[in-house]
Design brief:
This protein has helices at residues 12-23, 52-66, 89-117, 140-159, 178-183, 195-207, and strands at 3-7, 27-32, 42-46, 69-74, 120-125, 165-171, 214-216. It is α/β, with parallel strands linked by helices. Helix 1 links the parallel strand 1 (3-7) and strand 2 (27-32). 39% of the residues are buried.
Length: 217
């Protein structure tokens, strides 16, 4: 059975992605903050992903158990609003830790492994709104962290392609989750992106049916 390394699997989007991948026959290895009992095609590893040593140990544990890692899927993250006047350096650092460091720490270790086995896939989730500079300033710290993630994915494709490593970043609009519905009770949710649509694209990337480096929703 092929193995998927995944972060952020307990969130609104993550739960859907884990189910789609596990139901699709992949064994999903999740980094979680609290210990939990695994079952079926899902295993859990207590990890603080902002700690590079713990993130590296997580990857090594999955390698030791699964050997054949098909892809790394990086969903861990968070959101904060705030324009330039209301954003501190601490706010920016916090968003970078949550949205970028969690992915960087894990991907760095996974890429090193990929180089020993002929390559592999990385899948990041960015933000369509964060790439729209007309409105991104209203969520400055969040946007900067997601832009950093976008640039990281692009750099991986340039610097690691000779090793067979491919990186993909998804840029969804507002995702239809309970959390977002709570934040925006009067919004037109018909225009929002269903978690199942994102999970389907991730599964297609893993299987090789989707090859685009940047995918907008």
């Amino acid at each position: 059975m092929e193995n998927i390394l995944l972060t952020g699997g307990t969130g609104n989007l993550g739960q859907t992605v884990v189910k789609v991948l596990a139901d699709g026959g992949y064994h999903v290895h999740l980094a979680v903050r609290k210990d939990a009992a695994g079952g079926g095609n899902v295993s859990y590893y207590p990890t603080e992903l902002t700690d590079s040593a713990q993130a590296g140990a997580f990857v090594q544990n999955v390698i030791n158990v699964g050997k054949n890692i098909r892809a790394g899927v990086f969903l861990a993250g968070g959101f904060a609003a705030g324009n330039l006047a209301k954003t501190s350096m601490e706010d920016i650092q916090s968003m970078i830790q949550v949205n970028f460091a969690t992915a960087f720490n894990t991907a760095q270790e996974l890429i090193a492994y990929y180089k020993t086995v002929g390559g592999g896939k990385l899948i990041f989730v960015g933000s369509k709104a964060a790439m729209d500079f007309k409105g991104a300033g209203n969520m400055l710290a969040y946007s900067l962290s997601k832009q950093l993630l976008y640039n990281f994915s692009t750099l991986i494709n340039e610097s690691e392609k000779a090793s067979g490593v491919t990186s993909h970043i998804l840029l969804p609009g507002t995702i239809d989750t309970e959390t977002n519905r709570g934040f925006m009770p009067n919004a037109d949710v018909s225009k929002w992106i269903k978690p199942e649509a994102i999970a389907g694209v991730i599964k297609d990337i893993v299987s090789g049916k989707e090859t685009r480096a940047v995918i907008e929703f």
